[in-house]
Amino acid sequence: MNHTSGNSNSTDNLIDRAALLLGTVNSVFVLTGAGVSAESGIPTFRGADGLWKNYSAQELATPQAFQKDPVLVWEWYHWRQDLILKASPNAAHYALSAFESIFEHFLLLTQNVDNMHRRAGSQRVLELHGNIFRARCCECDRKTEYTGIQGVSNDLPRCVCGGLLRPDVVWFGEAIPEYIWQDSLDFLSGTAVAMICGTSGVVWPAAAIPRIAMEQGVKTIEINLEPTPISNAVDVSIRAKADVALPLLVRKITDRPTSKIS
Ligand code: OAD
Q1: Are residues 28 and 99 in contact, defined by beta-carbon separation less than 8 angstroms?
Q2: Annotation says 129 is catalytic
Q3: CA–CA gap between residue 22 and residue 20 (Å, rounded)
Q4: Domain boundaries, the chain
Q5: pLDDT (mean) for 92-99
Q6: Of 93, 163, 218, 228, whose CB has the highest number of CB atoms within 10 Å?
Q7: Which of 249, 250, 225 is nearest to 239 (CA)?
Q8: Residue 255 neighbours by CB under 8 Å, 6+ apart
Q9: Is 28 touching ligand 1 by the criterion CB < 6 Å?
Q10: pLDDT tens digits for 208-232?
Q11: Is the confidence at residue 7, as pLDDT, over 70?
C-alpha cells in the first residue's frame, strides 16, 4: 500500500500514519542521503543545483581521477570541507539524534560524508560512504582526521609515513566497507521499521536497502521532496522536507502514550 500527496493536509495524515507505525515498535533503522542536509545549505548530488550537475564525478570522485590529478581532487574536497564547516546541522539531523533516546534499538546508516549527524548528537551512526573530514594513506592505509585549508597551497597532504593522503570517502568504482554493510544488514533483519530519508535511491548498494527491508517484512517509510523509485512500494511515502517531517514525527511519537512491541 502506498500513500502520497502534495497537499499539506494529507502530508499531515501521512505523518500520522508513520507515527502510528513508529509508536508501536522499539527497533528502527534509518537510511539517510543528501536531502537530509539540504536545508543546512549543503548541495545534494542530483537536484537542480546538485554537485553532479555542475561537476564531473568522473574527474573528481574516482580513483582514476585522483591518480591523474590529486591536486584538483583535493581542491574540490577542501572546497566541500569548507562549505560543510560553515554549515550547521538542521532540524532533521536533530530529530534523528532524538530517535536514539526514543527507540531501544536504533541504527542510522548514512550515505552522507558531511559528519552532520554526529554534530547533531547522533552516536549510533554508520557512514557507508566515509567521512569527508578523514583522510587515508594511499601507502599504509592509516586513517587520520583531516581538514585542509582551501586555496592555501598546492602541497598535497601527507601521512606520517610519507605516503600521499586521500579523502577517506568511497569513490565511484570502489567497494564500500564490508563491515558497515554487514552490520547494517544484520540490524535490518531484526528491525521492525525502516525509514528512508532524503535519498534518490539510485546509488548501490544503499539503493538495495528498501527492497531488502520489504522482503523481510520490515515496514517502510520514505521521506523525500520528490518521488523516487521506491515511493510506490513503501508502506508510507511522505512527500515533504526532512527538516519539517522528522521533527513533526518525533513530536507525534513522543506525545502519544503507547504500548511498544518489538
Ligand atoms: P541525491 O542528490 O542523489 O538525492 C537527494 C534526494 O534528496 C533527492 O531524492 C531529493 O528529492 C531529496 N531531497 C532534497 N532536498 C530534500 C529535503 N529538504 N528533504 C527531503 N528530501 C530532500 O543524493 P543521495 O541519494 O544521497 O555518493 O546520493 C547518493 C550518493 O550519490 C551520495 O552519497 C554520493 C553520490 O554520488 C558518493 O559520492 C559515493
Answers
A1: yes
A2: yes
A3: 5
A4: 1-40+90-129+175-262, 43-86+132-169
A5: 98
A6: 93
A7: 225
A8: none
A9: no
A10: 999 999 999 999 999 999 999 999 9
A11: no
Phi, psi of 39 (to 5 degrees): -70, -10
Counting ligand 1 atoms within 8 A of each CB, the residue from 62, 199, 204 with the most, and so the one to mutate, is 199
- Residue nearest atom 26 in ligand 1 by C-alpha distance: 33
Q: Is 196 in the pocket of ligand 1 (CB under 6 A)?
A: no
Confidence at residue 183, expressed as pLDDT on a 0 to 100 scale: 98
pLDDT at 150 over 70: no
Q: Quick check: CB of 89 below 6 Å from ligand 1? A: no
CATH 3.30.1600.10 fits 43-86+132-169, yes or no: yes
Judged against a pLDDT cut of 70, whether residue 153 lies above it is answered with no
Distance 39 CA to ligand 1 centre (A): 12
Q: Is the CB of 242 under 6 A from ligand 1?
A: yes
Confidence class for position 66, pLDDT limits 50, 70, 90: very high
CATH homologous superfamily of domain 1-40+90-129+175-262?
TPP-binding domain (3.40.50.1220)
